[in-house]
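User: I'm designing a mutation panel for SGNH/GDSL hydrolase family protein and want to avoid disrupting the core. Could you give me a predicted structure to guide residue selection? Please restate the sequence first so the numbering is unambiguous.

Assistant: Good idea. Sequence first, for numbering, then the predicted structure tokens:
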Amino acid sequence: MSLSVLAGLSILVLGESHLTISGSLIESLHDELNKQGAAVHSIGACGASAQDWLVKKNVDCGADRVGTGKAVVRGRDSTTTPISQLIATDKPDLVVLVIGDTMASYDKEAFPKTWAWQSVTSLTKAIAATNTRCVWVGPPWGTPGGQYKKNDARVQLMSRFLATNVAPCDYVDSLTFSKPGQWTTTDGQHFTVAGYKSWGAAIAKAIAASDAAKAVAKTGAKPAATAATTAAPGARK
């Protein structure tokens, strides 16, 4: 059996509340990447948008997991950490961002495109300044309505927006992994353990197939960092 291209790579996963709940991606995705031989550090921050990973910001909850250890879940004492600081500390070969639902503003009539563009591009520029490869995972289908007012039209809009604005990160379109309503949610946005298991496995497979992962695997190590920029960790809505 051939080794995964992720074997031996160091991966930093940052995201919103999909990485803070028991049974969520901080377990399913993290475990899938571990199985493929990667050294993984996953951080979730509730309610954080892309720009919140550029500064230290208080969030309502968060979680942190390193390697094969258990996730450490935190409450209102949680904060994001600047992305430049995280990259300098972890020296990851690859950064994976799971940020989409928090920024989609499902409960708003109009999508805040200018703000979203500024937020997303600020984070990608900060990562690019460190010469670190990255993969951005878009939002999945949910159940229309619920606490966060998630709806199919807005999630499609958010996915298209990210697909055209996250470069130089590779984009992973989570909408291709399931049909609308296929994965059961608890509140319209967050999945049951089964849903997170399916999503996590699909994300891990897509990361392994990404140009970013293949490029890092081919070189055998990430290029030396060139510039320090300010950035920070994700969140939940």
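For picking mutation sites, this is relevant: The chain has one domain: 10-219. Residues 223-237 have pLDDT under 50 and may be disordered.
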